[in-house]
Every structure is written in C-alpha cells, then in structure tokens.
UniProtKB/TrEMBL annotation:
May act as an oxidative stress mediator by inhibiting thioredoxin activity or by limiting its bioavailability. Interacts with COPS5 and restores COPS5-induced suppression of CDKN1B stability, blocking the COPS5-mediated translocation of CDKN1B from the nucleus to the cytoplasm. Functions as a transcriptional repressor, possibly by acting as a bridge molecule between transcription factors and corepressor complexes, and over-expression will induce G0/G1 cell cycle arrest. Required for the maturation of natural killer cells. Acts as a suppressor of tumor cell growth. It is found in: Cytoplasm. GO terms for biological process: nervous system development; protein transport. The keyword Metal-binding does not apply. Pfam families: Arrestin_C (PF02752), Arrestin_N (PF00339). GO terms for molecular function: ubiquitin protein ligase binding. This is Thioredoxin-interacting protein. InterPro entries: Arrestin-like_C, Arrestin-like_N, Arrestin_C-like, Arrestin_domain-protein, Ig_E-set. Homodimer; disulfide-linked. Interacts with TXN/thioredoxin through its redox-active site. Interacts with transcriptional repressors ZBTB16, ZBTB32 and HDAC1. Interacts with DDIT4.
Amino acid sequence: MVLSASHKPKVSLHLSDPSRSFYSSGDKLSGSVQLQAAQPCRLSGLRVSAAGCAHVQHRKNRSQEVEYLKYEEELRLEELLEKDGCFLLPAGKSFSFQFGFELPPPGHLVSSYKGKFGYIRYYVRAELDRPSHHALHCEQEFEVEEPLDVNRPELLAPAACSKQKKVTCMFIPDGQVSISAKIDRKGFCEGEEISVNAKFENTCSRIVVPKAAIVAKHSYVADGHTKVSVQKLAAVRGNHIISGMCDMWQGKTIRVPRLRPSLLGCDIIRVDYALMIYLHIPGSEKLVLELPLVIGTVPFSAVGSRTSSMSSGAGSLGSQGGSVSSWSSFPSAPPSYSNIHRDLRVRTPLLLDYDGAEDDEEDGGLVMKAPERFYAPPPAYREVDDAANKPENVS
C-alpha cells in the first residue's frame, strides 16, 4: 500500500478535566492523545512527556534554568501493529490513547509564574514518530499552584519596626521625623485587611505626609547576577502633620488586592511582599520602613490562632524596639488640624506633594489650611451721662 506523505495525521492532546484551573504537588494528572488520519499512514511510536522548569534571562548571553518536573511514557500502539514492525493508522478512524502520572510530592514543585525577566512553566507534550518523516508534536500547558497556609506559627507572629531621620536644610539641622509601626501578623490572603498601628512624629519645620503601600519585589537570578523589579500595588495616606505635632494610626486598614501568592521555593525567581510605611518630606528623601508580608492561598482562621499569635508576639516585640512594645498604652490620637472647619478652609498652594506614586492625585499638592475665624459680637452698651445721674448735694 502506497501512503501519501503529503497528508499528515492529526494529533491532539486533551487533559481529563479541562475546567480545572491548577494542579498541586501530589495530584494525579491524566488525559488522552487522539490520532486521526485522512489517508493511511505508518507510525513508529507515540510518546507522552511532561516537563516543568524555571527560566530566567537578563539578556541574550545571560540565562539560567532550574528543572522541577520531568516525566516520559511510551504509549502502547499494539492495536495498530503491522507485520513489518511499524504501526498502520487507517484512514477515517479516530484512536484515543490514555495516559496519566502523579506530580512530585510537596517540596519538589513551585508555583507557575510569568514575569518581566523569567517564568516558571509546566506542560504535557505528545510526540508522534513516523518512519522517514519528522515527528509531530502537540503540547498542552497546565498551571501549578502550591498551597501556602498563612496560619503557620511564623506567619501569625506580629511584625514591628521603628525608624527615625534627621532633617537638614542647606546642611543646617532642621529637626527630625520618626515612625513606629506594627501589624498583628505577617500572613494574609487576597481580600483580607491589614490593620496598621503606627505613630508619626514631626519636629522639623516642614509639613510631612504619612503613607502606606503594599509593594511586591520580583527577584531574578541568572549566572550570579540579580535583577529586581518593584511594584506598588495598593496605597493609603494619612493627614498632613505640621511642625511640632504627631499623628497616630490605630487600626488603619489597607485591603490586600488580587495578588499571586508569594513565591518562596524557587532557586532563581522569588516574589516577596512588604507593607511599606513612610513619611513624605518635602525637599528631602522619604523616611521609609518595611514590614514583611507573605501572601498565601489558605486564608487566616481565627480558631486556635489568636492564642498562638499573642504568645509568639510577646517576645518578638521587645526585641524589635522598645518604642513599639506597649501599643495598648498609647493615648488616643489628638484631633488633626486638617479636620478643623473642612468646609471653610482657605487653600494656599505651598509645596508639590509628589513622590512618583499613584496615591497623590487627591490634592494635587500640599496645601496650608487656615481655618476661618469667628469673632464674638461686641457687648451691648449705651452712653450714660454720669454727671446727670449724680445726685445734687443738698446744702
């Protein structure tokens, strides 16, 4: 039988559960390979392989890869076996061949990822060999997401930090600013709110603005060189703090937006998160402190977590700075000058409040707010002639 080489057989690969969004370590991945030909053709073998690797490339001559998954299986084609040792695929019929394998156990896989300088990719490939012809390939990608439980003891422990900075003007000392901040735990999931306790002090002559933001740091390593990309994802801001005043955040919240989980187990790609709390100082560099965050996939459970969080945080606060060790003893925050006569304030442009962030669109500049003064009306009076009312002397 003469076979036409111009008509290639069709090869398609299908996973058993196409609606499944991701797999995790230890899961069973299965599917089928379907073959169909318009004309009869000879085959010499059918293989299914699976692979997963992390790849980083800074430039053309600087790249690195780490392999996390490798699997190969030869599918049996006996039902199509011919006498000459090749397999004959008849025309007009469709054949399906099943495959399946188990992903490596926990600790051997990392989550899928795609970034600016690298990716972590997993795929299944079917390869059909034909005598005297090039092999035919068919490929199907699948996502891997490793579970990350934020209820681990180390992620339930609070995080606290203090920082201060001396401010100068033309090399002349101009006071200082300081930040003390604390969050109750480090582990969060998408949609949860981070409660921030912070104290800001300003003894310099300028008006400063407290702000906070969730930032992501993507690190890529190739041939011993590291590239880092930083993104600001969500931000909040506080009231302006004038010279000689302080402000406090007591449970100010910032919501965790939709984020991919922290990527911690890969050797060449890493995604870390942090809560950045900072003071914008006009004419000077910002005072910045960062509290570590871990974005997980298993949400926080208050059952049994409160006790471990409180006990694990008791010792850590003392070692991270005495100024933030007794948050419960902080007095209530004083009223902010920015809230006085908000409807009747006089807005006078003073300094441009710009730090390259997206959270500065509200005011368009730092303003000095002067409350309107109300004076009491003068007391009622009348003219009285004391001489007229004085009784005459009786002689």
